[in-house]
Amino acid sequence: MSSPPTPRQILETLLPPLRLAAGYARHIQDNIVAQPAKAGPNPFSTALTDADLSVQTFVEVALLGSFPNLRFYGEEFEQSYNTKYFRAIDLGPAGDYLVTLDPIDGTRFYMDGFPNYQIILTVLNAAGFEAVLAVSPAEDQYFYALRGQGTRVGQLAQALDDCEPLQRSPNQAVLLGTRMAPLKDKLSDRYTVISVSEDYSTDQPIPNVNGILKGHLGGVILAAGKFIDGAALAFLAQEAGCIVTDHQGQPLPRLDECIDYAWPGLAIAASPDIHRDLLTALEGFQIPSV
């Protein structure tokens, strides 16, 4: 039996189809058709479009054609025709990788015509993240990281080897994810604070979590970090030199100790000072129930 592919081989193989998927998503954005909303706690988690379903199907086909024995978990796995053809959708031990996909991260942003959506692919095992690749179709750009090797950025046409190490320029803005709005008053004396639930508008763009990579944000607080999106971006930020912990400032657990494919609440900061301020704001805070 042949050896399983390495995380780098998985990224190299899937980058070309991800480029095509990015072109597709970019092309149809102005005419996008929404699908009936999914079940979920807020409009950002329930949004669904033709692009979500089509991009996932395209990547599934590429993955089954290239590495049919890998595990795969896509955000739209319940609606996919291909889920039954993968060996498993859960985490495996070291070397038995789970590939995950968020076909359109920021679907609400995408539906409203904003450019800061992305396609996120990860390679995981039970212990943690091994690799993440996040494509920004509208900006012709992608970020990727392999564990312990830093985060790199390049234009979509560039090969992995041609990408440059990400140079961070921290901003004094903080993004609060859904359910984190009550923290706004505790941080607004020092930072420009953007609350997704309070400040999102169809007319005025706000940063997404990927703003921590693009220099638009200095900090992010999330109620939880799904492996397919928030946690994946946190991994990219950490590999780029940011500080990433739980809400108590503790290291994050192994992935196989988590529930529902998600890390517990995340505090992501571009500097120790910002991280300290985030943790101070979080002291005694209880995340509101959904």
Structure description:
This is Inositol monophosphatase family protein. One of its GO terms (molecular function) is metal ion binding. InterPro entries: Inositol_monophosphatase-like (IPR000760). By secondary structure, the protein is α+β, with helices and mostly antiparallel strands. The chain has two domains: 7-165, 2-Layer Sandwich (Fructose-1,6-Bisphosphatase, Chain A, domain 1); 173-282, D-Maltodextrin-Binding Protein, domain 2 (3-Layer(aba) Sandwich). It is built from nine helices and 14 strands. A hairpin with a 4-residue loop joins strand 3 and strand 4. Helix 1 (7-28) packs antiparallel against helix 3. The protein is globular.
Largest beta sheet, briefly?
7 strands, mixed
The end-to-end span amounts to 46 Å
Number of helices: 9
Strands in their spatial order, largest beta sheet? 1-2-3-4-5-6-7
Structural class: alpha+beta
Strand content: 15-25%
Count structural domains. Answer: 2
Give me the CATH superfamily of the largest domain. Fructose-1,6-Bisphosphatase, subunit A, domain 1
- Judging from the principal axes of the Cα atoms, what is the shape? globular
Q: What is the name of the CATH class of the largest domain? A: Alpha Beta
Q: Whole-number radius of gyration?
A: 18 Å
N to C succession of SSEs: HHHEEHEEEEEEHEHHEEHEEEH
Please identify, by name, the CATH architecture of the largest domain: 2-Layer Sandwich
